[in-house]
Amino acid sequence: MKIIIVGGGSVGFQLAKHFTAEKKDVVLIEKDPEKARILANKLDCLVINEGAGNIQVLRNAGLEEADYFISVTDSDEVNLICCGLANNDKTFKIASVRNLNYESTRILSERLKYIDLIVNPEVEVSKRVIRAVEHGAISDIIFFEKSGLQMRNFLVGEDSTFLDRDIKAISQDLGKNFLVAGIARNDQFIIPTGDTMVRREDNLYLLAAPDTMDRIYETIGTEKIDIRKILIVGGGKIGRQVARHFIGKNPGKQAIFKDIARRLMGRDAGDATVAVKTIKIIDRDYNKCKRLAEEIPECLIINADISDEAIFKEENLNDFDLIVTATPSHELNVLAALYAKKVGIKRAVSVVSNVNYIHIAIRLGIDVVVSPKNSIIDPILNFIGSGAIKNIHSITDTETDIFEVTLKEGSQICGKQVRDLRLPPPSLVLTVNRNDCNIMPDGNTELCAGDHLLIMTKQQSVPRIEEMTNG
After folding, report:
1. Which pLDDT tens digit goes with each residue over 273-285?
2. Topology annotation, domain 2-119
């Protein structure tokens, strides 16, 4: 598979890193000379230091043989124009587009017709925020389509019942049908065995059915709460879309195209609902507040600076159930969420881009941290897929993937027990879905054709596992 990526920013870099790990033929085009030089030293792929708005540059990159063309620069116009230049019958086009209101611009609206997938960062972030809030804002959450299972993460504190115990003992004590699928520890991601010890500040990734997950969180002291009052800090696109969702208001065609709106408002995250009664939006931009008051009269709009501590007292914000911080300043998002929890707001969701801030925010106790970069990468990975492999999720900055695959008749691992699979290490079969029943496998579990497997592995091992599961 050949993939051309335009734009060597954080998203383009992560995509190129992911696809090269899977042994795909990747070409990255970056016009900034210094950035291109750094990328060439970090990535095992061809890096072209040119502007992609030239058809000859695209041809030199191998456009005629490309299966996918992905444009993820910081400029919507560049992304749209490049995808227009790349238009052919063979290549799928993917573009990152922040401003989707191009209907009135004839030239750019024509370009949109040739794009197979439009990914909007604000929409994807909003979806992840909404999904987390609808399930209690306890942690980030990943859903797996076929099995109906979910994966959540939580940080092990110094008073945790999991601290300094091995995985086997934890599983026996809880007595629930769940799995510790992975552990993020410092800069490592560990796929654990039963003997793996849990340490302080480990970020555990748990896999279970929704009702089991709720009971696990109750056991560890994090109960689900009724979220009735939501405070949103930042009246930009993310804050506006989250507010509209919870008051049951459509985004409107001026804000976003109908198909993207359907993706945002559709309940692809599950069946959970939140009976929100009050939403307040705080923003320090007076003109933005004025527009919000006209657009969303159901919400109370406050023109104030959230960094002013007095605002919490003046507006009685400490009795809110949840704060969502979604300003352009990710440092402010972290600080505001931490202060809100200190004064009594029960749950906090923050939008944070910087990887270091993400880890700090989790350690300091912010319940859900949403990364714009990761939010945009997952839909691209799922669109491209890899043959029989579906529903791919990349764990933040770990080079680890979780995916679903159906075992085909005649595959190398049909009829084998899990202990004899010889999957590329470190890999783990998390669950086996057979006849719509989920099995948490042990070494004696025998695999059959038609089994739907959920597997966690390193990105470089994905092609080998796909080969083993195909007939």
Report:
1. 567 889 999 999 9
2. Rossmann fold (3.40.50)
